[in-house]
Each structure stands twice: as C-alpha cells, then as structure tokens.
Amino acid sequence: MYISTVVGTVTPQQCAMIAQLSATNNRRDDVTGLLLFNSRRFLQVLEGPKDAVDRVFTRIHGDPRHRAVVKLREGLIDTREFGEWAMAFDDPARPSVDLKDKVAALLVQAGPSTRAHFIGSADMHRPAA
Ligand SMILES: Cc1cc2nc3c(=O)[nH]c(=O)nc-3n(C[C@H](O)[C@H](O)[C@H](O)COP(=O)(O)O)c2cc1C
Question: Any idea where the BLUF domain is (predicted)?
C-alpha cells in the first residue's frame, strides 16, 4: 500500500486510461488490489506474487504523473483483500455516484486498516473546481 500526490492534473479520461491499461497488465501478472484517486492523491494496494508486485510497483514509482510516493505497508499475506483489480475516481459521467460509496463497495473483503485508509482518502475528496 502506498500513497502519492498527483503532478498537475489527471483528468477523468486519463484516469480511465490508467484503469484500462492497469486492468490488462494486472490480470496478466496476477496482481489484484485497488487504486483510488481523490483528485489530489492516489492510494493503492497491490497484491499478488512478490516478484510481480515488485515489478509493477517499480513501474508505478517511476511514473511522472505522480510524486512523493510513500509506502505505507508491505508484507506477506495469506489471503488477498481484494481478489480483483479496480480503480475508483470521480467520474463526471456518473456524478450521482459518490466516491465514498464506490470505494465502500470495493472494500467488502478488506480488513479494518485497509478500509480505514481508503474511506479516509475518499472522504478527503474535493472535486476539481
Ligand atoms: C497512480 C498510478 C497507478 C498505476 N497503477 C498501475 C497498475 O496497477 N498496473 C499497471 O500496470 N500500471 C499502473 N500504472 C501505470 C504505470 O505507471 C505504467 O505507465 C504502466 O504500467 C506501463 O505499462 P506498459 O509497460 O504496459 O506500457 C499506474 C500509474 C499511476 C500514475
């Protein structure tokens, strides 16, 4: 699990592109988890075989679209908290769906600490002016 800060702005269209590419790559690499973008910060959990998680994290870490990447948690787990890969962000095509509700729906299998991080981050959501 890491947190980072967006560089400049990332539009919902760009989010959708990150989501699409990541879904393809992560499925191929057996990586699951959740990526949240609250318009200012990213919060992501990556779970899967250690080598695969290390490889994708190295790619993500070097991505110029964000900075100040800080690892919050890392370790071996017995069971995945997500089991699939997903991204949640503010989508103007579905303005009525609150980011917090979207995230909550994706956290059904997650433990209390993971839930707290994601719900807290979704709460800090400030839609772009
Ligand atoms: C916040 C953030 C999260 C990302 N998460 C993933 C991810 O989970 N999986 C992934 O493959 N790429 C992710 N990316 C994109 C990677 O940084 C990188 O652009 C991509 O993996 C390159 O894929 P390619 O080698 O297939 O071109 C993310 C990018 C950002 C900015």
Answer: 1-88
The CA-to-CA distance between both ends of the chain, in Å, stands at 29
- Mean pLDDT along residues 64-80: 97
3-state secondary structure of 61: helix
Q: Residue 43: left (phi > 0), alpha (psi -120 to 50), or beta?
A: beta
CA-nearest residue, atom 26 of ligand 1? 25
| pLDDT at res. 96 | 72
**Over the stretch 91-105, which tens digit does the pLDDT of each residue have?**
777 777 789 999 999
Place of tokens 């695969």: 52
CATH dotted code for 2-123: 3.30.70.100
Q: Cα of 18 to ligand 1 centre, how many Å?
A: 6
Atom of ligand 1 nearest to the CA of 29: 11
